[in-house]
Amino acid sequence: MERYTVASMVIFFALLSSSYGYGFAKDIPYTLDDRDRLIRVEEGLKEGLKGVNQRIDSLENGWMDCRV
What we know:
- This protein is an all-alpha fold.
- The protein has helices spanning 2-24, 32-67.
- The mean pLDDT is 80.
C-alpha cells in the first residue's frame, strides 16, 4: 500500500513540474484588430441592453395600467 502512495506522489510531482513551464510562459498576441472587435462587441451589448431595459419598462408600465 505504501508503494502505491509513494509512486502516486512521484508521478503527481513529475506531471506538475513538467507542465509548470508551459502554462505560464506563453505570450498571447493581441492586435489592434482584436481591440477594435472588442469595442464593437461592447457597443452592441450596450445597444442590446438599452432595448431590453426599454421592454422591461414598457412591461412594468403595462402592469401598472392593468392594476388601476
